[in-house]
Specification:
Chain lengths: 386, 386
């Protein structure tokens, strides 16, 4: 199997981007990625687009808005979707496009415009990533799902509200250093703990933001990657797991089994173990999700995720720095963009280009972890610099 | 590049399937495909799902409904979308999954449930496959788009309303022979021409049906395909083109440039020419679309599509039999299922299993052509039996 390398990265600023439409956000990211790769759009052979929601983009085929605005026709392009993990489906599909030989230079774009409708409408659309028949009609939305997970984790492992708050404090700390982040402000643990309840025990600062944004990467075959870029970042492991539609059908609320499966696939494919990972971005849609991810990815033993953040082992200088771009929590979570933005961040880290005091020293192996829904999909990717 | 073979096919009956939900339709198709392949779901390593619309499935990640109902977790699965060509995006992605080495047995499922909402609501959802900013708000829906294409073709090439009606007569003739078709009735040219106007010059019998349905195929690597099936059908060519979002930006209304591009890619990859194709299924969402497809696929010269149907050259016994399963026109067009159902039909034809008097004799090379929107996407696939 030939290697597939990342030769260009770009992203828009995340935030409430009333200045830019879906297509304009995608353009910002693509322009950055092509400039970074030092190539023109003419040299790109195919494109994969991630936009998670038809409804938020008011379109049946949102990828066509992006193809059109970039004048990318008549070349191959289509959309992939896995709810909040859609961006990772695009990275996976871009990898397959190159590895299968269908195209040797592929643009992967993820974008979402979420602030054009009300927060209630977004909550409704996202809620329908869960079970539309047996859970959503009874009032379940995403804060509720993750509140159940948090309560179960607290009951089983003694995880505390303070530990949840510490995840927010860390991610806001690093987000404040990231010029692309939605909310660039430090918070204190007291502020996190005294914020209003969203779905008990989750408070405002336990929840990620609703953001607009886009991210893009350029992938190339091993042969071309080395021609365009002396030092590409290789995607060496791809894992994708799925789980039941209903949370009530899960084996154990304190684990996302799809993540355990995806991680196993990715580690095996890359030939590494969790302790080999130098830097990770994980799906912290809610603070509890980051704690569960530590455990499911094998960064610590099951049940010790709370302790891991309490001991600051996921800060830079700790065992394994996690979400030093601010995470979904502070950088923002434009759902179709997130998985691609994760690849952008890990590439920056492995290149040593994460400026503003948030670079992990000597990072050679990176990991991204992206959950769709409340665990119906989970993707884990491993990245490596030679 | 290793070959990728189809080792199993299945589909649900298309129609107004008030007896079955989206997941149940998918189950019918998958059960058929696995039985046909002689394997169990345990032997399948990954799945690709095509559902075109979030809104029609009331879900943000409709593929999870299908994963869940099949108990397919924790294995890899996600959704792909290219509007009415979504099914062909799934076939393409399934092919890439095998060819890239990520999995050696892959299930490709396409499904759509369209009759649970009103016809007006479906027309609205489909209309938003076009340009949401510059065309849809001014009242454009799909019959309108294709009416403009028909008028332009009539003006430029002298194509007649009678010739449009003859496409409907042919496809209803073959659809009547297909036990999986939505509308199994022959019609006369008089009946077609006297049916009520939908969008002038298109009449009721120029328009395809709104249907529920699902289709599935099992793909395998060359090595495994031959172990499971002595005589698999190989996918030897894959083409995918795109075009402008707005119809008004097109170079020429009488051609779908995305189809010309996709056909060129597919013929080159398969190493064949249009005259080598023994049997084809093309995207006849409206009768004019089939006539334009004859030309864009190179089955006849530009402008001679009307003559081609008038001379019955696309009936069995003619130059190249087209849509002898009834086409979208009579078999039905559950949009996420269509591209996969096309692969099912071509496989049947190449195996010599298209019963009920609609088998094309000695067919060895088949072609499928699937358009998304009004030409924003177009996919052409070439199939071959050794």
């Amino acid at each position: 199997m030939d290697k597939v390398g990342i030769i260009g990265i770009g992203q828009s600023r995340f935030g409430q981007r009333s200045d830019a439409s879906l297509r304009e956000l995608a353009f910002e990211a693509v322009k950055g990625a092509l400039t970074d790769a030092g190539i023109t759009l003419d040299e790109v052979k195919a494109m994969v687009v991630s936009v998670a929601s038809d409804e938020l983009s008011f379109a049946l085929q949102p990828s066509s808005q992006i193809v059109d605005y970039l004048n990318f026709y008549p070349k191959p392009s289509f959309r992939v979707e896995g709810a909040c993990a859609s961006g990772s489906m695009a990275v996976r599909t871009g990898w397959m496009t190159v590895a299968s030989g269908l195209a040797d230079v592929v643009l992967v774009v993820g974008a979402e415009k979420m602030t054009e409708v009300s927060t209630a409408a977004v909550t409704d659309v996202l809620g329908r990533a869960g079970d539309f028949i047996w859970e959503y009609p009874f009032g379940m939305t995403f804060p509720g799902y993750y509140a159940l997970i948090a309560r179960a984790h607290m009951a089983k492992y003694g995880t505390t509200e303070e530990q949840l708050g510490m995840v927010a404090v860390k991610n806001h700390h690093y987000g404040a250093l990231n010029p692309y982040a939605h909310m660039r402000k430090e918070i204190t643990l007291e502020k996190a703990l005294s914020s209003r309840t969203v779905a008990d025990p989750l408070k405002l600062y336990d929840c990620c933001l609703i953001s607009d944004g886009a991210a893009a990467i350029v992938l190339a075959s091993e042969k071309l990657a080395k021609r365009f870029n002396n030092d590409p970042v290789w995607i060496t492991g791809l894992g994708l797991g799925t789980d039941t539609l209903s949370l009530m059908d899960r084996r154990d609320l304190t684990t996302i089994d799809a993540t355990v499966e995806a991680a196993q696939q990715a580690y095996t494919m890359a030939g590494i173990e969790p302790r080999d990972v130098d830097v990770a971005v994980v799906h912290d849609c809610f603070t509890i999700a980051e704690i569960v991810a530590y455990e499911d990815l094998g960064f610590c033993k099951k049940g010790e995720g709370g302790k891991m953040i309490e001991e600051k082992r996921t800060y830079i200088g700790g065992d394994i720095p996690v979400n030093v771009d601010g995470g979904l929590k502070s950088k923002g979570h434009p759902i179709g963009a997130t998985g691609v933005a994760m690849a952008v961040e890990i590439t920056k880290q492995l290149r040593g280009e994460a400026d503003h005091g948030r670079q992990v020293p000597n990072a050679r192996i990176g990991l991204s972890h992206n959950v769709g829904g409340n665990g119906q999909h989970s993707a884990v990717h491993i990245f490596r610099r030679d």
